[in-house]
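Incident log, structure service

09:12 report received: a user says their structure output differs between two submissions of the same chain.
09:20 pulled the input from the user's history:
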Amino acid sequence: QDAAGNDAASFAATEVTNNTSASADTTPPQLIITGDSRPKITGNQLVLSFSDTGNLDADAAHTPANGAFTVLVNGVANAVTSVTVEPQAKTVTLTLTTAVTPGQTVTVAYADPTTGNDANAIQDAAGNDAPSLAATAVTNNTPAPSPPPSGPTDKDTRNDTDSDGIPDSTENRTPGIPGPGGAAPVVGDGNGDGIQDSTQPAVASASVTVSPIGESKPAGAASTYVTLVTGSQDGKLDPDSGARITRLEQKNAPAQLPPGMETPLGLISFEAKLATGRSSETFSLYVDPALGVNGYWAKDSTGTWTNLSSAPHGGKMALEGGRLRLDFEITDGGPFDADGQANGVITAPGAAAQMPLSVVGQASSVAHGEFWL
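09:34 re-ran on a clean worker, output below:
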């Protein structure tokens, strides 16, 4: 009817012109259930990967409800507490109430709200809903803790569950940061994945002294915690990495440093063992942003100091949960692997340091007169 209330007359069946573009995306995302992208879980993080011609819809207003998913661990329901969508990676990550342990069987099911396209569902950017999913097996990639060392052991390392050289008692005191989806921090969880670091061979947390000669433990110096993650994807574990940390310790800064470089923690030295077939590994180092550092600096075999957590070298820096995260990558046997051998072990004495940046560079005081980058 019109504004005056006059009704339009009835009309018989009338042909409608279909102007929908033939190229419009009408194909819904499909869950990948085979290969490396099959459903997998590490701890309390269950990742679903989808195939689609476009990106997934990451609008928070369109995220499926937690209750749309049913996760069973050894046949018992484990409630989903948050759902996170990564549009370009085409993944949906579910955070579970309780972390799974190695060897447990896990299945996941998903119920699309209706047969049509919905406001809250797994969907692509064009609004096509992913179909409902019957109970599907999930690969459990939660690593098993390393066996305790045999024979006599030192008192400080006797209770070192993950064999990273740091006592459980130290790692369990690490201040936690919020988990995915804003989950409450867990004490002893320095990288915010909801799992205590003392149980994860690929995550190590240590208490260090705020001093360039921290290894010497100068009297009156304050302490802080650092957390290192190997096989890192933005600070969380890559379930396919298989790397583990075998040592994390503080060393004194060298006497000769590039002019202007400040190393409030001295050197953070670590050793990581790579999985068979891996030639490099990604790392994340969490530190207190109040230290004022602007990168993770490492010295290569020629004496050149380089900020590996800078974009030109494939790294980055990010604030997460009140901590500064330094992301970087090191190649086994490459210029920043201190042992210089492609032997499946990366040894790296680097520094979370502050360096005044310059466009043209600045001559360092190390041997050979190289420049820092």
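09:41 both user submissions now match this output. Likely a transient worker issue. Closing.
09:42 reviewer note: The first helix runs from residue 168 to 171. Helices lie at 168-171.
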